[in-house]
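Table S7 (text form). Paired inputs.
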Amino acid sequence: MLSSPIGRLRFFLYSVAISIAELVAVALCFAATMGFHGFVHSKPGPSREGLALASFVVMMVFFVARANITWRRRNDADLSKWLVVPYIAFSALFAMLEAATLLVYDVNTGNTNVGLNLLSIALFALWLRICVASPKGRPFDPDSFLTAEGFGEPPSGAFGHATAASVSAGPSMRSTPVTVGARGHGNAGGITFGKRGRS
């Protein structure tokens, strides 16, 4: 199950679910360590080490889950390793930088990390490329896409059976042979023709 290929829709839904769960887990880390109020009124430095460490552990757990679905998506779309491996490596780097940012971020000044913002944009671009990649060996077909993701059913064979029945019924319609008896009576499709007898 953890190594089977996944399609575009499942990869998208899994990614959204992982991101939401990660935000909730990090929020719990804030509440369990120093609280949001304590973080806002604290100064950058050693006082935030517990929060940064807990957040780093949580982010790495979700990074493993994200790397797993990315690799499974690669198996479905036959993506190049040059696309998938950098995305996984940059995701791990992004998690470490986010945890480190909690140590140095000053709420009062609101300083931003330009490099971290650029990395997040690059990761989103790579994720989007991985998400929309077509399955290997098949062009994009909406019906096949929904069927593969479990949201549709394959076309029923009713129409095919009806067509086959109508075609097979054609050759069975044969003209009834006309037989003529010795006395001049004929038979064609159940209709008889004869001469009227002399008086």
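Next pair, protein 2 of 2.
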Amino acid sequence: MAITEVTRQTTQPCLGQMVKKLINNHCCLTLLRFFVAHPNGRFSKLAIVHAIDDNHNRPEVEKSLMQMVDEGILNLKIENDVSFYMLTREEPTRQSIMEMGEFDWRHWQLVLDYI
């Protein structure tokens, strides 16, 4: 009698596709760098907008936050009607994001030119 082990694997989103989506949006890159600088923090939408919105473009920041939640980069938790955002806890994705976040703007431009 043979015993067969069956494991379930969840598919991780392709990071290349994720990077292409992020590169085309300066606000997403700014958010990525913000969360890499504060990897264990959780922030309200208002705090994030005040921290990174130097062009007074709150709708763009909100749109980028939701895009990053949809991509699995950020987690969203709502407590007492306040939305809190934090970097994902899924280790493979989190590690890749941490490495990408260390790029400076010049490196991102090189990646954009390559793609």
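The longest helix spans residues 58-71.
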